[in-house]
Amino acid sequence: MAVDETLLESVGQKHSLPCLRLYAWEPPCLSIGYAQPCADIDLPRLAELGWDWTRRPTGGRAILHTDELTYSVITPPGEPRLAGSVLESYQTLASALLSALHSLTIPAVTHPLKMSGNAQENGPVCFEVPSNYEIVVSEKKLVGSAQARRKDGVLQHGTLPLWGDLTRIVRGLRFSNERKRGEAGARLLMHATTVETVLGCKIEWQAAAQAFVEGFQTELNLDFIREQLSSEELVRVDQLVGDKYSNPAWLRRI
Questions:
Q1: How many Å apart are CA 40 and CA 44, to the nearest integer?
Q2: In which domain, by residue range, is 122 found?
């Protein structure tokens, strides 16, 4: 998360080009949204499980990052490809994500969300309920994304679960009793899915990453240059890790 924020600053200051970043997590990490209460997390259970946790610079609810491809797109404020509203930029980036998924023979689509106003929309798990125009397969959420707009520019990041048991996340969240924990896991399976479940086989991380690169290049008319973080950016990452993303005062502020 510190790298994503550092790149947002760097791109906004014109020290770096707009970028697509693809990454994974080790060990598993539970992330909560920028304004999500940390009371949603069962910290003793996380310690027992050996999972990390952090707070994202974007909104949304809790995600367990494991067995997945995570992407981030970072652009300056005036990037024409992301012109318009948040929803319009979501749709633009969704076209690239769909191109990537279709190249992997995943029959994903986007569609407007019809909110029903029921209680589960306020649950702690991000993948339990799709957001507007997110990517689904057979009405089940496949890609979860969130966007932050700041003076430095636009950061959108999201996650594609490749394989594994999606209900693992409820083991690290706080519920008033085990029945409600089980119900949350069952709802999650009703509303979300993984690449492996859709295809009946595993797609390795590198194959998914290459599909993302090609999807963004094709749909957004891009040419990518592979780069590493600069020495200045690495210093800023360390600073943000200390000040925010591993700092209990910031992580537990809500």
A1: 12
A2: 2-251
Backbone phi, then psi, for 51, in 5-degree steps? -95, 145
Give dist(CA 149, CA 193) in Å, integer. Answer: 28
Two structure tokens written together for 243:
């000040």
Backbone Cα Rg of the chain: 18
CATH of the domain at 179: 3.30.930.10
Please count the structural domains in the chain. Answer: 1
Sheet holding 153-161, edge to edge: 19-23, 68-75, 153-161, 140-150, 135-137, 109-110
pLDDT at 90: 85
Q: Is 208 helix (H, G, I), strand (E, B) or coil?
A: helix
Give catalytic status of residue 201 as yes or no: no
Whether the Cβ atoms of residue 146 and residue 129 lie closer than 8 Å to each other = no
Count the Cβ atoms, other than its own, within 10 Å of residue 36. Answer: 19
Query: Which position among 19, 29, 126, 201 bears the catalytic label?
Result: 126
- With beta carbons less than 8 A apart as the criterion, state whether 197 and 107 touch: no
Q: In degrees rounded to 5, what are phi and psi of residue 222?
A: -115, 155
Q: What is the pLDDT of residues 84-111, one digit of tens each?
A: 888 888 889 999 999 999 999 999 998 7
Which stretches of the chain drop beneath a pLDDT of 70? 112-133
**DSSP 3-state percent helix, strand, coil across the chain (nearest 5):** 45, 20, 35
Cis geometry, peptide bond prior to residue 27 (ω within 30 degrees of 0): yes
pLDDT of residue 116: 47
Claim: this prediction has a pTM higher than 0.85: yes
Q: Which residue has the tokens 């799709």?
A: 130
Count of residues making up the chain? 254
Q: How far apart are CA 134 and CA 28, in angstroms?
A: 24
